[in-house]
Each structure stands twice: as C-alpha cells, then as structure tokens.
Amino acid sequence: MIRKNPEVDLRFKYRKTFELALIIALAVMIIAFKFFPDIKPPKAILSSTQEVVDVEDIEITKQENRPPPPPRPPIPIEAPGDQQLEDVDIMSSEIDITADAPPPPPKDNSDEETYFVAVEDLPEPAGGIQAIQSRVVYPEMAKRAGVEGMVFVQAFVDENGVVTKTDVIKGIGAGCDEAAEKAVKETKFKPGKQRGKPVKVKMSIPIRFRLTK
Q1: Where do the H-state alpha helices sit in the chain?
Q2: What confidence tens digit (pLDDT) does each residue in 29-46 have?
C-alpha cells in the first residue's frame, strides 16, 4: 500500500485551511456580538394612509330609434275653373286627307345659273389679253406706295360674251383689285362654246400691275 507524504498531500492542507477559516469566522461573530450588542431600530416608521376612491356604477343607456318626422303636407294648387277653360281654344290635331295641300314656295332661279369651268372653247377677250391690260388704270395710291404684282380676277361670262359678275381670287390691295375688276367688266368677250353651242363660263384672268421706271 502506497502512502502519500503529508507535506505533499493537498487534501491535508485543504482541511487545515477550512478549519482555520471557520475558527476566524466564529471569532469575528463573537467579537461583534460582544462589543456591539445594541442594534437600534429606526426612530420612526412613516405610515401613509391609502386613499379610497369610490367608483360609481354607470348604467349603460340604450339608444332608441326615433320615428321619422311626419311628411310635409302637400301645397294646394288652385285648379282652373270652368270659366277659365272656356277661354282656351284647342286646335284639332286631326289631319284632313281630302284637303288640298298648299302650293310649294316659288324657287329662286338666281342661284341656278350654271357656269361651266372647263369647255371646249374658252371665252376670248376682244383684242386679246392686251385689250384688258390697256384698260387698267393704275391707282395713284398704289403708285405712291410702290405696289406691284398680279391680280387674279374670276370673270363670269354669259353666252353673249358679256361679263355679268367678277370676283377677286388673289389681290394686292391699294386700289389695284378694283381697277382690275373694272377693266375686265368693260371688256367684250367672244363667248365660250361647248359642242358648238355658246354657254356660260367662269374663268380666271390675270392682270399685271408694274411700275415703269
């Protein structure tokens, strides 16, 4: 059997250490109770009163459905009397089939004049386009303003070669448009023909306005 050396045995040292610590602790407690026997309690203990709150029971009220308000009374409307109804004339809505229908309104023949645009033989001014150009009077206002250009006049030539109406398609103003229309109206035309028969034709005629230097 093997024995350990007491000087080297750790368990032996632990036992001695535990006994020594226990003796020291007991000595400290004895000294404390001997020298400090009086342990005074606190001088005063504060006491506080707890407030009591009374909670009232509130009854739950039920919401009652109110009845709807009564309807408004109708506004009285005065009905017409028998005397007022006698004064009203009510026309009959029945249609008399046997009655003669009124005659139609007269037709306006002024807009029914037909002018051809494209014909076999166009109207030709007597003396050519130079005859119209020679009749143009250059307005003084256009001369002073230095207005130059081309005025296009639409001429309505009837079957007799007479210009019945003119319209300015494109003008330059300063009195030149009126002078061009006047020159076209004063010119006699050879009437246009369609299938060898004179017809009414509308045609565009250019009139030049040029200042001479």
Answers
A1: 10-35, 82-86, 129-134, 140-145, 176-185
A2: 888 777 766 656 556 555
